[in-house]
Design goal:
By secondary structure, the protein is an alpha+beta fold. It folds into two domains: 140 residues, Beta-Lactamase (2-Layer Sandwich), CATH 3.30.450; 154 residues, no CATH class. Helix content is 31%, strand content 25%. The strands form three sheets. It has a seven-stranded antiparallel beta sheet. Strands 1, 4, 5, 6 and 7 form a five-stranded antiparallel beta sheet that branches. A hairpin with a 4-residue loop joins β9 and β10. α1 packs across α2. The two termini are 29 Å apart.
């Protein structure tokens, strides 16, 4: 699923979880706004709710023109200095009405806490007329979020530095030390991936180094310079491991990917591969080119479309 679709799904879940409680509070706000003699009663109502709310940083009420009626209310205090300010320029203003009473904003960085937040707005209505808006600033890390699986098989192309791209044809590939031993590097890389417990390898052809991640220590990568990555002695550092049954890449595909890396490294004097990576667990190939652009795609798509896209 696309990232944007996952984010929308998360917001739909949050709306479902939050709207009922906010609807009830907005009804109480409507009654208080109509019957109370002062806005102190409105502040007290909000403060009483905030004491029980686990995920909100702040709440306040606006009138239907965007002027703040209540104070800024959090769990510990009522800040009256903010009453009367015009918030009609806020992105969430005009997002709710009688027929569409609830709105959840995009996430943003709070200017107060400097943490990711999201604003929830509920219409305050009386006799089917919009009389105000109830606004909550919610801290993302405290919300009851889903745990979506972020897909990694979609092709993604990322443009690099415009200055580098503009000077692409003023540069030529310089033969690196790794280029001179590329077959040895690829043979040892295949051995590491297929037999020795490495699940992710990134080959930096221009700078002649490799970074690898292993099953036994996945949170720390190992950096190897060329003399190490071209020596079979490196295999002594990584004991033999059974190939994981959950890997998405076969031994045959590993060798084909590495063969294609070699072709891309030498395919053109101006446009060529600078770094290539392969992760056998999520099945993703990463490519970074001399134009500073990058591609991320599944092994299947990379192998199936290599001749069309890269040859």
């Amino acid at each position: 699923m696309q990232i944007s679709a996952l984010i929308n799904k998360q917001k739909e879940f949050l709306s479902y979880e939050l709207e009922g409680g906010f609807r009830q509070l907005s009804q109480q706000c409507a009654h208080t706004m109509v019957s109370a003699r002062s806005f102190n009663d409105l502040d007290d109502l909000l403060h009483s709710h905030m004491k029980k709310c686990k995920y909100a940083n702040l709440t306040y009420v606006l009138d239907c023109s965007g002027v703040q009626l209540s104070s800024n209310v959090d769990r510990t205090q009522i800040l009256t200095d903010f009453q009367g300010q015009d918030l009609s320029a806020r992105p969430f203003f005009n997002k709710v009405d009688v027929e569409h009473p609830f709105y959840l904003s995009d996430a943003y960085i709070s200017g107060v806490t400097l943490k990711p937040c999201i604003s929830a707005v509920h219409a305050i209505c009386y006799d089917d007329v919009l009389i105000g808006m109830l606004v909550f600033d919610l801290e993302l890390q405290k919300l009851p979020l889903l745990e979506p699986k972020i897909g990694s098989n979609d092709f993604r192309q990322i443009k690099g530095d415009p200055e580098i791209r503009s000077n692409l044809f003023n540069q030529n590939r310089v033969q690196s030390a790794m280029d001179q031993s590329i077959d040895t590097v690829h043979n040892i890389s295949a051995e590491l991936l297929c037999e020795l417990g490495v699940f992710h390898i990134k080959l930096h052809y221009a700078s002649s180094r490799a970074t690898i991640w292993t099953y036994d220590d996945p949170y720390n990568y190992k950096l190897h310079v060329l003399d190490e990555i071209i020596s079979p002695n490196i295999c002594l550092l990584y004991p033999k491991k059974s190939y994981p049954s959950t890997a998405k890449v076969s031994h045959e595909q590993i060798r084909k990917v590495l063969d294609h890396f070699k072709k891309m490294r030498f395919m053109d004097e101006n446009l060529y591969l600078k770094t290539g990576s392969l992760n056998i667990m999520n099945g993703i190939v990463g490519l970074s080119f001399s134009c500073d652009g990058s591609h991320y795609l599944s092994v299947e798509e990379f192998l199936a479309n290599f001749d069309k896209i890269y040859a």
